[in-house]
């Protein structure tokens, strides 16, 4: 990909609030989300999060020390966004995105195969596959998504409670041998921060018409977490910090065992030394 990019400057720059601007900048720096010459495709669903992500990427070009291009795409779901309602949604999104000076495309979604139930997983899988294909067609090596801190925490609990694994979405995730990277520039912002930026930018989100909206695992986990946050001060920050502070030795991964019944990672001797002295660590 050529490193020479014609810089697309915002026609009118809106100054981001300092604390939020620093959080976004720290996320971009920590995960090296942008490089000079990048072509970034922003996936805009019409929700407030993805529209804010597109707006922020556009605004950042006015001051970024590097040059990069941004364009947006909306995958029109079928039949949830079926015409004429889907066309109206796509046009509402396009009107805002084009108003910022971004190239915008609305692409008809792939239909769910006959006989296959429409679920969040199926819709997300179809959209993600189509998004990757469109990024390749447009020569975009980065795909920006609108997930924020609350989404990352919720995903961790969804995977823990429903799938039995400890994992979440990454602020940057390289795919296909590094040929494509997903970036989530809002990863260090809370939902309330995103809403504040939406108000600043005058963003008008499109209503979510999915028939499953409000009745998903994410909604259930979000409600559970709201109760937790209400009784444990600082819980959100602690959980988010824990996602990057993993103590692997105190998780129940099966250790490698040799033919002689000893651990091959040297932890037999380590465990013996620990048992010989008192400790206040609950994990041991």
UniProtKB/TrEMBL annotation:
Top-level taxon: Bacteria
Residue ranges of the TM segments: none
Gene Ontology molecular function: any one: transferase activity
Alphabetical keyword list: Transferase
Pfam families: ATP_bind_3 (PF01171)
tRNA(Ile)-lysidine/2-thiocytidine synthase N-terminal domain boundaries: 40-211
Name of protein: tRNA 2-thiocytidine biosynthesis protein TtcA
Coiled coil: none
Positions of the UniProt region annotated as Disordered: 1-20, 261-284
Alphabetical GO biological process terms: tRNA processing
Keyword presence, Ion transport: no
